[in-house]
C-alpha cells in the first residue's frame, strides 16, 4: 500500500509540472519545460523515463525500478486518455491551418503562410526534439529568392541534377503527397557523402548527420521518428522488404510489430520522412521504389580538393542566407499551389506541382 501511495504521489507531482497530450492517432506524449527548452516526447521515450525519475520519492533508492517506471507510465497513459488534449505533433516540420511550421531549435519556430513569415516562440504544433538534434541558425530575413544557389557550391553535380536535388530538398515542406527518394551515385572520392551531409545539415541538422542503412524495416521506422530527413550513407543494395518500408515512409505509412518479444501486445510506428541515400552504383530493383526515386550522379572532382574545415566555415557563413531563401521559396509555393493545375496521374504528381510553384526559385547555377 505504501508503494502505491508513493507511486500516486509521484504521478500527481509529475502532472503538476508536465502536460499530457495525445496526437491525432491517440498516442500519448509528455510535455515539460519552457521556450526553446520545451521537451515533447512520446510516453515510451527514454527522455520521459529520465524526466519522471526526478520525482521518485522513495529515499532508499537513487533510481526507481523498471516496475515502478512502468506503473507510473501506465497511470500517465490513463490520465492522458481521460484528460489529455489532442494536439498536432511533429518533428522539425509540421502543418496547421494552411501554414508550414519549421522548428529552428533555439531561435524558435518559423511560421510560413501565404501572407506572412514570422518567427514565433509558441506554435500551434508541438515539436519533438530528438536528443541528437541541433538548432538551425536564424534565417537571414534579407535573403533573396536566388540565395539558395549558394547551396550549389557544396553540390558536386551538373546543373540539371542540382535542380532535381533542390526539388527533393524542398519537398520536405510538402503537406501532402508522396515524398521522393534521392539516390546519389558516383565514383569513390566524388564527394557523395559530403553532399548528402550538407543537405541534411541545411534543414535538419544533428550531431550524426549520416547513418548506415538500418538492418530491418522496423528499425528504419524507429529511426524515422527522430529524423525528418534521413541521410543514409554507403548503400549498395536495397532489399525488397526495405524497398517496401521506404515506400511506406514516403507516403505516411506505418509498421506494426510486437512491443516486447515476451508478449503479443502490438505497437504501431507511424512515420513520414524524406530519405536520401548514396553509394557507388546504388542498386534499386523494385519498380515501386524506383518510380519514387530521383537519380543523380556526383561528378568527378578532377583534382579539386577543399578541406572539410574550409567547407564547414563556408557553409556556416552562407547557411542563414540559404535558409532565408528556402523559407521564401516555401511561401512562394504556398501562394501558387492552388493555382497550379496538372493532368498528371504519376504517383509523384504532388511533387511535380509543388516544384512547378517554384520553377524560378529552383534554377540553380
How do the helices and strands line up, and which of them pair or pack?
Layout: H1 2-17, E1 19-22, E2 28-32, E3 39-42, H2 46-53, H3 66-83, E4 85-86, E5 88-90, E6 93-96, E7 99-103, E8 109-112, E9 117-120, E10 125-127, H4 159-170, E11 181-185, H5 192-203, E12 210-211, H6 217-224, E13 229-232, H7 240-250, E14 253-258, E15 266-271, E16 274-279, H8 287-290, E17 293-297, H9 308-337, H10 349-356, H11 359-362
Helix pairs in contact: 1-3, 6-7
Protein name: ATP-binding protein
Summary, kept brief:
The protein is an alpha/beta fold. The chain has 11 helices and 17 strands. Helix content is 36%, strand content 20%.
Q: Report the CATH superfamily of the largest domain.
A: P-loop containing nucleotide triphosphate hydrolases
Low-confidence regions: 260-264, 359-365
- Largest β-sheet summary: 5 strands, parallel
The CATH architecture of the largest domain is: 3-Layer(aba) Sandwich
